[in-house]
Amino acid sequence: MSGDGTGGQKGPRLPDAIQDVCGEVSEQLKVRTEPKDWEQFRVRRVVNQNGRPMLVSGLGVPHSTHLSPAHILITLEDIGRREDGVIEQAKKLFRLTDREADVIGHILKGWTNKQIATAMSITEQTVKEHIKHVMQKTGTKTRTGVFVEIIR
Question: Is residue 46 part of a domain?
């Protein structure tokens, strides 16, 4: 990312909130050098875009074949928007069980395994098993990979 927020490309400048999130994710990627550690953080900012509150989230995504260059995934979401449609689509596409879909819904919110376990009244180990099954079904190896596959 260049200093002008355009990644060295000519064209419109990215909004400050997105530039800030990209910068913070880039700094975290310097500290967290192992891709498996990248799923442990996500940078979030609430911004007001034309009178609409939006959640800007950013996280590091490992390259599929090697560590460098890493990618930064930025998502924008209307606050309060339900993700039921995304989860239902993923449930059908990847043949997820109801419980796996519930876990995915919480992962999309950025919750930890402990938070998911508490909300679903199950153990953290059970959450990990659900995530393991989802990773197998989506062909991914990390929570970040699951996140990317689900929102595609």
Answer: yes
Beta carbons of 150 and 86 less than 8 angstroms apart = yes
* Residues spanned by the domain of 45: 16-78
Q: What is the CATH number of the domain that holds 125?
A: 1.10.10.10
Q: Which residues contact 1 (CB under 8 A, 6 or more apart)?
A: 7, 19, 22, 23, 26, 72
Tens-digit pLDDT string for the chain (152 aa):
444 444 555 667 888 888 888 888 888 878 777 767 766 677 877 776 666 667 788 888 776 666 556 788 888 877 644 556 788 889 999 999 999 999 998 888 878 899 999 999 999 999 999 999 999 999 999 888 888 888 77
Asked which of 51, 78, 105 is the last residue of a domain, the reply is 78
Answer with the one of 47, 78, 109 that is the final residue of a domain. Answer: 78
